[in-house]
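Page 47, continued from p. 46.
Same chain as before, 236 aa.
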Amino acid sequence: MKLSTTAASILAVLTAAGLSSGTAATAMASTVTSTVQVTGVQLKSALLPAADFPAGYAVSNASDSGGHLATAPAKDRLATMSCSAWQQDLGETGFGETAMATDTVGRSNSNPSQLTLSAYGQLVYQFRTTSAASAFFAGLRAVATRCSSISLSEGGATLTAKVRVVSAARVDGHTAFWIDETESASGFSAQDRTLLTDAGTDVFAVDSTGVTVAPPSSPAPASLIVKLIARVEALR
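Result:
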């Protein structure tokens, strides 16, 4: 899942080390009732700053849907898209959202003899209605359940991923679940944990990824997603 730091993480590290010629890109709070829509540029401004993450972590791979609300219908449908497309396209536009924003906050060592990446990813999709957001949230759980084993190729590197959906406790009243992944490519391994929730018209995700190291766990993704929802709601 391309939340800037998910299944593409190993491929990104391999690319940085010159081992692959391809490129790779990559939360609960008080009840949200507002239906005010904001742009992708505004959503990106609400993403958590580097100061909310461990010392030495820096923001990268930031992207958003632009300064206008999107009106195009969904071109990607979770129920029918392939598992590889889901991994590569999530974190991009095209799911019928009106706005989205994402980035990576982490630290990497691209020394070919000891490649490491420790990072968080954060992602927000905004939809026109709460029902559309809820349907997308449910669709993410369904596609992750369906796609339990995935193989991806990029720039000469091949990555395999094992995916598992894990129930999560409600965070401040919002339904949530985890997507856990174990990934490997060219002798390297990675672990990724993604916490997802929907709140009002928005779907939020915060993940933690470790390539050849354990995923970061402090701060906890749940605490980060609480802050993220609050910052997005403050825009409205």
